[in-house]
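Narrative summary of target 7.
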Amino acid sequence: MKFTQMLDAVAQRQRSMLCVGLDPEPSKFPNGWKDDAERIFDFCAAIVDATKDLVCAFKPQIAYFAAHRAEDQLERLMAHIKRNAPDVPVILDAKRGDIGSTAEQYAREAFVRYQADAVTLSPFMGLDSIEPYMSFEDKGLILLCRTSNPGGSDLQAQRLADGSLLYEHLARLAAGPWNRTGQLGLVVGATFPAELARVRELAPTLPLLVPGVGAQGGDAATTVKAAARPGGALMVNSSRAVLYASSGEDFAQAARAVARQTRDALNAAA
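Modeled conformation, tokenized:
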């Protein structure tokens, strides 16, 4: 099944626009596991098991694993999700951006080694930096467009010769000539709701991955109003607010409670 089909099916079945980001920081682990990088898999697997019926996707961020030499734990986590939540797509948040044979290796890393259903990519080297991933025809390729960080404006909000802004140009390309295989989606931050609405206008049917709700200050209801449209999947990511809802032994139950509240808040705004 293609990534977009998986996403549509699980979002409808579980009535969810919530994507839970898996960004494990051992310094924030619950008492007894605190600062123990060997428990990264255990922590993330517990979060997955507690929230798997509430989400439309999981999004492990590769840097949080690689920084602790925990790539093997990421492989185990991906396999765990495939076994225990096989219908929930997994987005590897890697933000890769390179060309030629190097991009081919990054694609193998995401889709062969880690068995991800989608990967985040930086499109600023152009279409040929994305093409190697397109040979994995059932996978999703989610391109950075208007990111949630303030510094994104340094480039993404620059005005081009035709009068459009760079992020608008990227949205048009992703919704048009670049999307010849139907695999593309866009990353657009919840911290810029007006720009989010503009991207949705330019790319009405593309899946949008929206970080920045919760700890980064984005508002769930505003995000849904800006970007929820029939025929265009919406994945609203929450990481820290879910993962670290409790520092006690009840961390998984607390994560579930926050995930449920967030999912319900998103649905109420639709």
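The chain has one domain: 3-269.
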